[in-house]
Amino acid sequence: MILIILIFVVLSVTLAFLIYRRVAYFDLLHVTHEKFDIFYGNSKNSSLGKWSVCYDVDRIYQKFKNQFPIAGFMRNFTPYIIPLKHEMFKQILITNFKNFRNSDFALDVKRHSIITLNPFWLRNESWKIKRSELSPALSSNRLKAMYPLMDDSVKEFSDYITNEIEKSSSMSLNAREISLRYSCNSIASTTYGINAHAYEKSSDVLHYGRKIWQEISKSTISFFNSDQVISNEVNQFFIKLTNQVIQNRRYNNQQRNDLLSFIISLKDKKNASNIESAAAAMTFFLNGFETSSVALCYALYEISKNVRIQEKLRQEITEFCGDDKDQRVPIDTLSNLKYLDQVFYETLRLHPPLFYITRVCNDDVELMTDDSDEKQLILKGTTVWIPIYSIHRDSDYYRNPDEFLPERFDEECGGVKAFRDKCVLLPFGDGSRICLGMKLGTLQVKAAIVEVLRNFEISCDDSTSDEDAKIKPNQFVNSPNEKIFIKFKKIKL
Description:
The protein is mainly α. The chain has helices at residues 2-29, 44-47, 53-64, 86-95, 124-134, 140-167, 175-192, 204-220, 232-251, 259-270, 274-288, 290-305, 307-321, 331-335, 338-350, 388-392, 415-421, 438-455; strands at residues 70-75, 78-83, 172-174, 357-360, 365-368, 375-378, 383-386, 456-460, 485-490. The chain has one domain: CATH 1.10.630.10. Helix 7 (175-192) runs antiparallel to helix 12. The longest helix is centred in the N-terminal third of the chain and has 28 residues, at 2-29. The termini are far apart. Its main location: endoplasmic reticulum.
Protein backbone atom coordinates (compact mmCIF):
# COMPACT_ATOMS: atom_id res chain seq x y z
CA MET A 1 0.00 0.00 0.00
CA ILE A 2 2.80 2.38 0.91
CA LEU A 3 4.52 1.57 -2.38
CA ILE A 4 1.37 2.39 -4.33
CA ILE A 5 1.00 5.71 -2.51
CA LEU A 6 4.68 6.50 -3.15
CA ILE A 7 4.32 5.74 -6.86
CA PHE A 8 1.20 7.90 -7.02
CA VAL A 9 3.00 10.79 -5.32
CA VAL A 10 6.01 10.51 -7.65
CA LEU A 11 3.79 10.43 -10.73
CA SER A 12 1.73 13.37 -9.45
CA VAL A 13 4.82 15.46 -8.74
CA THR A 14 6.29 14.57 -12.14
CA LEU A 15 3.05 15.49 -13.91
CA ALA A 16 2.79 18.74 -11.94
CA PHE A 17 6.38 19.64 -12.91
CA LEU A 18 5.71 18.90 -16.58
CA ILE A 19 2.56 21.00 -16.52
CA TYR A 20 4.34 23.90 -14.79
CA ARG A 21 7.29 23.64 -17.18
CA ARG A 22 4.94 23.79 -20.15
CA VAL A 23 2.69 26.55 -18.88
CA ALA A 24 5.45 28.80 -17.56
CA TYR A 25 8.31 28.09 -19.97
CA PHE A 26 7.79 30.91 -22.48
CA ASP A 27 6.52 33.37 -19.88
CA LEU A 28 9.67 32.91 -17.81
CA LEU A 29 11.72 33.67 -20.93
CA HIS A 30 9.47 36.63 -21.84
CA VAL A 31 8.77 35.06 -25.24
CA THR A 32 5.47 35.79 -26.96
CA HIS A 33 3.35 32.75 -27.79
CA GLU A 34 -0.16 31.52 -28.41
CA LYS A 35 -2.12 29.87 -25.66
CA PHE A 36 -1.64 26.14 -25.90
CA ASP A 37 -3.36 22.91 -24.97
CA ILE A 38 -2.03 21.23 -21.83
CA PHE A 39 -1.40 17.96 -23.67
CA TYR A 40 -0.90 18.92 -27.33
CA GLY A 41 0.69 22.35 -26.98
CA ASN A 42 0.24 24.39 -30.18
CA SER A 43 0.22 21.26 -32.32
CA LYS A 44 -3.12 19.63 -31.54
CA ASN A 45 -4.24 19.34 -35.16
CA SER A 46 -0.96 17.87 -36.37
CA SER A 47 -0.71 15.57 -33.35
CA LEU A 48 -4.16 14.21 -34.15
CA GLY A 49 -3.19 13.66 -37.79
CA LYS A 50 -5.40 16.39 -39.29
CA TRP A 51 -2.54 18.13 -41.08
CA SER A 52 1.25 18.56 -41.13
CA VAL A 53 2.99 20.27 -38.22
CA CYS A 54 4.35 22.85 -40.68
CA TYR A 55 0.86 24.38 -40.88
CA ASP A 56 0.71 24.73 -37.08
CA VAL A 57 4.06 26.51 -37.15
CA ASP A 58 3.05 28.64 -40.13
CA ARG A 59 0.05 29.97 -38.21
CA ILE A 60 2.34 31.21 -35.43
CA TYR A 61 4.92 32.54 -37.88
CA GLN A 62 2.37 34.57 -39.84
CA LYS A 63 0.73 35.88 -36.67
CA PHE A 64 3.87 37.25 -35.01
CA LYS A 65 6.45 37.85 -37.78
CA ASN A 66 5.78 41.58 -38.08
CA GLN A 67 5.58 42.17 -34.33
CA PHE A 68 8.37 40.25 -32.61
CA PRO A 69 11.84 38.83 -33.42
CA ILE A 70 10.96 35.40 -31.99
CA ALA A 71 7.88 33.42 -30.94
CA GLY A 72 7.29 30.33 -28.85
CA PHE A 73 5.92 27.04 -30.21
CA MET A 74 5.00 24.11 -27.98
CA ARG A 75 4.93 20.80 -29.80
CA ASN A 76 3.30 18.35 -27.43
CA PHE A 77 5.69 18.44 -24.46
CA THR A 78 8.62 20.08 -26.26
CA PRO A 79 9.14 23.88 -26.39
CA TYR A 80 10.73 25.55 -29.43
CA ILE A 81 11.75 29.10 -30.26
CA ILE A 82 10.86 30.25 -33.79
CA PRO A 83 13.10 33.04 -35.15
CA LEU A 84 11.05 35.43 -37.28
CA LYS A 85 13.73 37.59 -38.95
CA HIS A 86 15.95 36.56 -41.85
CA GLU A 87 18.97 38.14 -40.16
CA MET A 88 18.54 35.58 -37.40
CA PHE A 89 18.26 32.62 -39.82
CA LYS A 90 21.68 33.45 -41.23
CA GLN A 91 23.29 33.87 -37.82
CA ILE A 92 21.93 30.57 -36.54
CA LEU A 93 22.89 28.55 -39.61
CA ILE A 94 26.10 30.28 -40.69
CA THR A 95 27.57 33.20 -38.75
CA ASN A 96 27.07 31.80 -35.25
CA PHE A 97 27.13 28.15 -36.27
CA LYS A 98 29.46 27.30 -33.37
CA ASN A 99 26.57 28.16 -31.03
CA PHE A 100 24.04 26.09 -33.00
CA ARG A 101 26.00 23.20 -34.45
CA ASN A 102 23.58 20.39 -33.46
CA SER A 103 20.01 19.55 -34.37
CA ASP A 104 17.70 18.15 -31.71
CA PHE A 105 17.75 14.71 -33.33
CA ALA A 106 19.99 12.29 -31.48
CA LEU A 107 19.79 8.52 -31.40
CA ASP A 108 21.24 5.72 -29.30
CA VAL A 109 24.16 4.36 -31.31
CA LYS A 110 23.91 0.92 -29.74
CA ARG A 111 20.28 0.52 -30.77
CA HIS A 112 20.52 2.08 -34.22
CA SER A 113 23.76 0.90 -35.69
CA ILE A 114 23.17 2.25 -39.20
CA ILE A 115 21.02 5.35 -38.72
CA THR A 116 23.11 6.87 -35.95
CA LEU A 117 26.25 6.90 -38.07
CA ASN A 118 24.51 9.17 -40.57
CA PRO A 119 25.83 12.75 -40.12
CA PHE A 120 22.25 14.02 -40.00
CA TRP A 121 21.77 12.37 -36.60
CA LEU A 122 25.26 12.92 -35.21
CA ARG A 123 26.44 15.72 -32.93
CA ASN A 124 29.58 17.71 -32.16
CA GLU A 125 32.88 16.10 -33.14
CA SER A 126 31.21 12.84 -34.22
CA TRP A 127 29.22 14.79 -36.80
CA LYS A 128 32.26 16.75 -37.96
CA ILE A 129 34.42 13.63 -38.38
CA LYS A 130 31.76 11.60 -40.19
CA ARG A 131 30.77 14.40 -42.52
CA SER A 132 34.38 15.13 -43.52
CA GLU A 133 34.84 11.41 -44.07
CA LEU A 134 31.89 11.05 -46.46
CA SER A 135 31.91 14.44 -48.23
CA PRO A 136 34.66 13.55 -50.75
CA ALA A 137 32.38 10.86 -52.21
CA LEU A 138 30.08 13.60 -53.52
CA SER A 139 32.67 15.95 -54.99
CA SER A 140 31.99 17.50 -58.39
CA ASN A 141 34.55 15.23 -60.08
CA ARG A 142 33.08 12.07 -58.58
CA LEU A 143 29.55 13.09 -59.50
CA LYS A 144 30.70 13.76 -63.05
CA ALA A 145 32.18 10.26 -63.18
CA MET A 146 28.94 8.77 -61.80
CA TYR A 147 26.66 10.72 -64.11
CA PRO A 148 26.51 8.05 -66.87
CA LEU A 149 24.96 5.70 -64.29
CA MET A 150 22.30 8.31 -63.51
CA ASP A 151 21.74 8.82 -67.22
CA ASP A 152 21.08 5.09 -67.67
CA SER A 153 18.46 5.32 -64.93
CA VAL A 154 16.90 8.33 -66.62
CA LYS A 155 16.58 6.48 -69.93
CA GLU A 156 14.97 3.55 -68.14
CA PHE A 157 12.56 5.99 -66.50
CA SER A 158 11.49 7.35 -69.87
CA ASP A 159 11.00 3.84 -71.27
CA TYR A 160 8.93 2.90 -68.23
CA ILE A 161 6.61 5.89 -68.71
CA THR A 162 6.22 5.02 -72.41
CA ASN A 163 5.28 1.43 -71.61
CA GLU A 164 2.84 2.47 -68.88
CA ILE A 165 0.92 5.01 -70.97
CA GLU A 166 0.67 2.51 -73.82
CA LYS A 167 -1.11 0.18 -71.39
CA SER A 168 -3.40 2.93 -70.06
CA SER A 169 -6.22 4.49 -72.06
CA SER A 170 -6.11 7.62 -69.87
CA MET A 171 -2.32 8.06 -70.24
CA SER A 172 -2.42 9.23 -66.62
CA LEU A 173 0.20 8.09 -64.11
CA ASN A 174 0.68 8.55 -60.37
CA ALA A 175 3.46 11.13 -60.19
CA ARG A 176 4.39 10.26 -56.62
CA GLU A 177 4.75 6.59 -57.42
CA ILE A 178 6.74 6.85 -60.64
CA SER A 179 9.06 9.46 -59.09
CA LEU A 180 9.76 7.19 -56.13
CA ARG A 181 10.49 4.22 -58.38
CA TYR A 182 12.85 6.31 -60.50
CA SER A 183 14.77 7.68 -57.51
CA CYS A 184 15.03 4.18 -56.03
CA ASN A 185 16.55 2.76 -59.21
CA SER A 186 18.89 5.71 -59.64
CA ILE A 187 20.25 5.82 -56.09
CA ALA A 188 20.50 2.02 -55.84
CA SER A 189 22.65 2.01 -58.97
CA THR A 190 24.99 4.78 -57.79
CA THR A 191 25.18 3.58 -54.16
CA TYR A 192 25.06 -0.22 -54.29
CA GLY A 193 25.91 -0.83 -57.94
CA ILE A 194 22.74 -2.87 -58.46
CA ASN A 195 19.50 -2.75 -60.40
CA ALA A 196 16.77 -2.32 -57.79
CA HIS A 197 14.08 -3.48 -60.27
CA ALA A 198 11.89 -0.73 -58.83
CA TYR A 199 9.59 -0.73 -61.87
CA GLU A 200 8.61 -4.31 -61.20
CA LYS A 201 5.83 -5.39 -58.83
CA SER A 202 8.25 -6.85 -56.32
CA SER A 203 11.40 -4.96 -55.35
CA ASP A 204 13.05 -5.54 -51.98
CA VAL A 205 15.08 -2.33 -52.18
CA LEU A 206 11.97 -0.27 -52.94
CA HIS A 207 10.03 -2.04 -50.19
CA TYR A 208 12.64 -1.42 -47.52
CA GLY A 209 13.33 2.08 -48.82
CA ARG A 210 9.68 2.95 -48.22
CA LYS A 211 9.72 1.15 -44.89
CA ILE A 212 12.71 2.99 -43.47
CA TRP A 213 11.15 6.40 -44.19
CA GLN A 214 7.85 5.29 -42.73
CA GLU A 215 9.62 4.20 -39.57
CA ILE A 216 11.67 7.40 -39.34
CA SER A 217 8.52 9.51 -39.72
CA LYS A 218 6.60 7.47 -37.17
CA SER A 219 9.37 7.90 -34.63
CA THR A 220 10.11 11.59 -35.13
CA ILE A 221 6.48 12.77 -35.07
CA SER A 222 5.53 10.52 -32.17
CA PHE A 223 3.69 12.13 -29.23
CA PHE A 224 6.43 10.78 -27.00
CA ASN A 225 10.09 10.50 -27.96
CA SER A 226 10.93 6.97 -29.03
CA ASP A 227 14.21 5.16 -28.62
CA GLN A 228 13.39 2.89 -31.53
CA VAL A 229 13.64 4.57 -34.92
CA ILE A 230 14.15 1.75 -37.39
CA SER A 231 13.28 -1.87 -36.87
CA ASN A 232 15.86 -4.63 -36.68
CA GLU A 233 14.35 -6.04 -39.89
CA VAL A 234 15.19 -2.88 -41.85
CA ASN A 235 18.57 -2.56 -40.16
CA GLN A 236 19.57 -6.09 -41.05
CA PHE A 237 18.34 -5.84 -44.64
CA PHE A 238 20.64 -2.93 -45.46
CA ILE A 239 23.59 -4.40 -43.58
CA LYS A 240 23.18 -7.66 -45.48
CA LEU A 241 22.74 -5.84 -48.80
CA THR A 242 25.92 -3.81 -48.30
CA ASN A 243 27.94 -6.88 -47.31
CA GLN A 244 26.72 -8.79 -50.36
CA VAL A 245 27.49 -6.10 -52.92
CA ILE A 246 30.95 -5.49 -51.42
CA GLN A 247 31.75 -9.22 -51.52
CA ASN A 248 30.54 -9.49 -55.12
CA ARG A 249 32.54 -6.45 -56.17
CA ARG A 250 35.71 -7.87 -54.63
CA TYR A 251 35.14 -11.38 -55.97
CA ASN A 252 34.59 -10.15 -59.53
CA ASN A 253 37.34 -7.54 -59.24
CA GLN A 254 34.92 -5.07 -60.75
CA GLN A 255 35.78 -1.41 -61.24
CA ARG A 256 32.88 1.02 -61.38
CA ASN A 257 32.57 4.77 -60.87
CA ASP A 258 30.00 4.72 -58.10
CA LEU A 259 29.62 5.33 -54.39
CA LEU A 260 30.20 1.68 -53.57
CA SER A 261 33.78 1.97 -54.85
CA PHE A 262 34.27 4.90 -52.48
CA ILE A 263 32.81 2.89 -49.59
CA ILE A 264 35.12 -0.06 -50.31
CA SER A 265 38.13 2.26 -50.51
CA LEU A 266 37.12 3.85 -47.22
CA LYS A 267 36.63 0.44 -45.64
CA ASP A 268 40.14 -0.64 -46.63
CA LYS A 269 41.70 2.65 -45.57
CA LYS A 270 40.05 2.76 -42.14
CA ASN A 271 39.62 -0.96 -41.61
CA ALA A 272 35.96 -0.08 -41.12
CA SER A 273 33.48 -2.60 -39.80
CA ASN A 274 30.62 -4.03 -41.85
CA ILE A 275 28.21 -1.84 -39.89
CA GLU A 276 30.22 1.31 -40.64
CA SER A 277 30.24 0.47 -44.35
CA ALA A 278 26.51 -0.23 -44.31
CA ALA A 279 25.93 3.06 -42.50
CA ALA A 280 27.90 4.98 -45.14
CA ALA A 281 25.88 3.34 -47.91
CA MET A 282 22.66 4.07 -46.05
CA THR A 283 23.63 7.75 -45.74
CA PHE A 284 23.97 8.06 -49.52
CA PHE A 285 20.84 5.99 -50.17
CA LEU A 286 18.67 8.12 -47.88
CA ASN A 287 20.00 11.31 -49.49
CA GLY A 288 18.83 10.22 -52.93
CA PHE A 289 15.70 8.20 -52.22
CA GLU A 290 12.77 10.00 -50.58
CA THR A 291 13.67 13.69 -50.89
CA SER A 292 14.70 13.42 -54.56
CA SER A 293 11.47 11.64 -55.42
CA VAL A 294 9.45 14.31 -53.62
CA ALA A 295 11.23 17.09 -55.51
CA LEU A 296 10.68 15.35 -58.86
CA CYS A 297 7.01 14.67 -58.12
CA TYR A 298 6.34 18.30 -57.27
CA ALA A 299 8.34 19.56 -60.26
CA LEU A 300 6.28 17.44 -62.66
CA TYR A 301 3.11 18.56 -60.93
CA GLU A 302 3.91 22.29 -61.19
CA ILE A 303 5.19 22.04 -64.77
CA SER A 304 2.12 20.04 -65.83
CA LYS A 305 -0.17 22.83 -64.59
CA ASN A 306 1.58 25.62 -66.48
CA VAL A 307 1.78 25.34 -70.26
CA ARG A 308 3.80 28.54 -70.64
CA ILE A 309 6.52 27.38 -68.25
CA GLN A 310 6.57 23.93 -69.79
CA GLU A 311 7.00 25.27 -73.32
CA LYS A 312 9.67 27.75 -72.24
CA LEU A 313 11.64 25.04 -70.46
CA ARG A 314 11.28 22.59 -73.35
CA GLN A 315 12.51 25.28 -75.74
CA GLU A 316 15.63 25.77 -73.62
CA ILE A 317 16.21 22.01 -73.46
CA THR A 318 15.84 21.66 -77.24
CA GLU A 319 18.15 24.62 -77.85
CA PHE A 320 20.96 23.12 -75.76
CA CYS A 321 20.32 19.40 -76.28
CA GLY A 322 18.99 19.21 -79.84
CA ASP A 323 15.99 17.36 -81.28
CA ASP A 324 17.59 13.91 -81.33
CA LYS A 325 16.14 12.30 -78.21
CA ASP A 326 18.53 9.37 -78.49
CA GLN A 327 21.42 11.76 -78.05
CA ARG A 328 22.21 11.75 -74.34
CA VAL A 329 22.54 15.01 -72.39
CA PRO A 330 26.06 15.63 -71.01
CA ILE A 331 26.36 16.73 -67.39
CA ASP A 332 27.94 20.05 -68.41
CA THR A 333 24.94 20.82 -70.62
CA LEU A 334 22.57 19.94 -67.79
CA SER A 335 24.40 22.36 -65.52
CA ASN A 336 24.10 25.18 -68.08
CA LEU A 337 20.30 25.08 -68.39
CA LYS A 338 19.51 28.29 -66.52
CA TYR A 339 15.73 28.19 -66.76
CA LEU A 340 15.78 24.56 -65.60
CA ASP A 341 17.69 25.74 -62.53
CA GLN A 342 15.03 28.37 -61.89
CA VAL A 343 12.22 25.84 -62.26
CA PHE A 344 14.05 23.46 -59.95
CA TYR A 345 14.54 26.03 -57.19
CA GLU A 346 11.04 27.42 -57.55
CA THR A 347 9.75 23.88 -57.03
CA LEU A 348 11.85 23.54 -53.88
CA ARG A 349 10.76 26.96 -52.68
CA LEU A 350 7.08 26.02 -52.77
CA HIS A 351 7.66 22.41 -51.78
CA PRO A 352 10.83 22.08 -49.69
CA PRO A 353 11.63 18.40 -49.04
CA LEU A 354 12.54 19.22 -45.44
CA PHE A 355 10.07 21.83 -44.24
CA TYR A 356 11.91 22.81 -41.05
CA ILE A 357 15.34 22.73 -39.40
CA THR A 358 16.04 22.54 -35.69
CA ARG A 359 19.16 23.71 -33.92
CA VAL A 360 20.07 23.44 -30.24
CA CYS A 361 21.84 26.42 -28.69
CA ASN A 362 24.92 25.14 -26.86
CA ASP A 363 25.88 28.43 -25.23
CA ASP A 364 24.11 31.69 -24.41
CA VAL A 365 24.27 33.98 -27.43
CA GLU A 366 22.86 37.34 -28.50
CA LEU A 367 21.59 37.57 -32.09
CA MET A 368 20.94 40.70 -34.12
CA THR A 369 17.26 40.89 -35.00
CA ASP A 370 17.51 43.38 -37.89
CA ASP A 371 19.75 46.12 -39.25
CA SER A 372 19.50 48.06 -35.99
CA ASP A 373 21.41 47.39 -32.79
CA GLU A 374 18.53 45.44 -31.25
CA LYS A 375 19.58 42.01 -30.01
CA GLN A 376 17.78 38.88 -28.88
CA LEU A 377 19.22 36.60 -26.20
CA ILE A 378 19.00 32.87 -26.89
CA LEU A 379 19.77 30.79 -23.82
CA LYS A 380 21.86 27.64 -23.71
CA GLY A 381 19.71 24.55 -24.16
CA THR A 382 17.05 26.34 -26.23
CA THR A 383 15.90 24.47 -29.32
CA VAL A 384 15.34 26.73 -32.32
CA TRP A 385 12.86 25.80 -35.04
CA ILE A 386 13.60 27.41 -38.43
CA PRO A 387 10.31 27.22 -40.39
CA ILE A 388 11.50 26.69 -43.97
CA TYR A 389 7.98 26.23 -45.34
CA SER A 390 6.85 29.57 -43.88
CA ILE A 391 9.99 31.45 -44.92
CA HIS A 392 9.62 30.24 -48.50
CA ARG A 393 6.04 31.55 -48.65
CA ASP A 394 6.64 34.86 -46.90
CA SER A 395 5.39 37.81 -48.95
CA ASP A 396 8.11 39.98 -47.38
CA TYR A 397 10.65 37.97 -49.37
CA TYR A 398 8.66 36.71 -52.36
CA ARG A 399 6.15 38.55 -54.52
CA ASN A 400 2.99 36.48 -54.93
CA PRO A 401 4.55 33.74 -52.81
CA ASP A 402 1.91 31.08 -53.51
CA GLU A 403 2.41 31.29 -57.29
CA PHE A 404 4.80 29.04 -59.20
CA LEU A 405 6.96 31.68 -60.86
CA PRO A 406 10.50 30.60 -61.89
CA GLU A 407 11.14 34.07 -63.32
CA ARG A 408 11.53 35.41 -59.78
CA PHE A 409 15.03 33.87 -60.02
CA ASP A 410 15.98 35.68 -63.25
CA GLU A 411 19.57 36.93 -63.31
CA GLU A 412 18.47 40.57 -63.46
CA CYS A 413 16.68 39.98 -60.14
CA GLY A 414 19.83 38.57 -58.60
CA GLY A 415 19.11 34.93 -59.40
CA VAL A 416 18.93 32.15 -56.86
CA LYS A 417 22.06 33.51 -55.19
CA ALA A 418 20.33 36.69 -53.99
CA PHE A 419 17.78 34.70 -52.02
CA ARG A 420 20.28 32.21 -50.70
CA ASP A 421 22.60 35.00 -49.57
CA LYS A 422 19.70 36.50 -47.66
CA CYS A 423 19.07 33.07 -46.14
CA VAL A 424 15.42 32.95 -47.22
CA LEU A 425 15.86 30.09 -49.70
CA LEU A 426 16.71 27.01 -47.66
CA PRO A 427 15.60 23.81 -49.46
CA PHE A 428 18.85 22.09 -48.44
CA GLY A 429 19.44 24.06 -45.25
CA ASP A 430 22.57 26.19 -45.18
CA GLY A 431 25.94 26.56 -43.52
CA SER A 432 28.17 23.73 -42.38
CA ARG A 433 25.24 21.32 -41.93
CA ILE A 434 23.82 21.91 -45.40
CA CYS A 435 22.44 18.71 -46.94
CA LEU A 436 25.31 16.34 -47.74
CA GLY A 437 23.51 14.94 -50.80
CA MET A 438 22.48 18.30 -52.28
CA LYS A 439 24.49 18.00 -55.51
CA LEU A 440 23.58 14.34 -56.00
CA GLY A 441 19.85 14.98 -55.52
CA THR A 442 19.94 18.02 -57.80
CA LEU A 443 21.49 15.98 -60.61
CA GLN A 444 18.97 13.17 -60.18
CA VAL A 445 15.97 15.47 -60.38
CA LYS A 446 17.20 17.77 -63.15
CA ALA A 447 18.20 14.84 -65.37
CA ALA A 448 14.74 13.30 -64.97
CA ILE A 449 12.93 16.58 -65.74
CA VAL A 450 14.94 17.04 -68.93
CA GLU A 451 14.29 13.46 -70.06
CA VAL A 452 10.56 13.77 -69.44
CA LEU A 453 10.15 17.07 -71.29
CA ARG A 454 12.25 15.88 -74.23
CA ASN A 455 9.92 12.94 -74.70
CA PHE A 456 6.51 13.92 -73.36
CA GLU A 457 4.00 16.71 -73.11
CA ILE A 458 2.54 16.60 -69.62
CA SER A 459 -0.67 17.94 -68.14
CA CYS A 460 -2.30 17.68 -64.75
CA ASP A 461 -5.10 15.12 -64.58
CA ASP A 462 -8.55 16.54 -63.80
CA SER A 463 -8.77 14.27 -60.77
CA THR A 464 -5.86 16.10 -59.10
CA SER A 465 -6.45 19.25 -57.07
CA ASP A 466 -4.22 21.66 -55.14
CA GLU A 467 -5.33 19.89 -51.96
CA ASP A 468 -3.54 16.78 -53.18
CA ALA A 469 -0.26 18.70 -53.31
CA LYS A 470 -0.40 19.64 -49.64
CA ILE A 471 2.00 17.99 -47.23
CA LYS A 472 0.54 14.86 -45.68
CA PRO A 473 0.20 14.74 -41.89
CA ASN A 474 2.53 12.67 -39.71
CA GLN A 475 5.52 13.00 -42.05
CA PHE A 476 9.11 13.78 -41.15
CA VAL A 477 9.84 15.12 -44.63
CA ASN A 478 7.54 16.76 -47.15
CA SER A 479 5.44 13.99 -48.62
CA PRO A 480 2.59 14.84 -51.02
CA ASN A 481 -0.66 12.99 -51.39
CA GLU A 482 -0.65 9.77 -53.40
CA LYS A 483 -3.35 11.24 -55.66
CA ILE A 484 -1.18 13.48 -57.85
CA PHE A 485 -1.87 12.13 -61.34
CA ILE A 486 -0.25 13.49 -64.50
CA LYS A 487 -1.07 12.77 -68.13
CA PHE A 488 1.83 11.96 -70.43
CA LYS A 489 1.60 12.37 -74.20
CA LYS A 490 4.51 11.04 -76.25
CA ILE A 491 6.18 13.65 -78.43
CA LYS A 492 6.53 12.26 -81.94
CA LEU A 493 9.87 12.50 -83.71
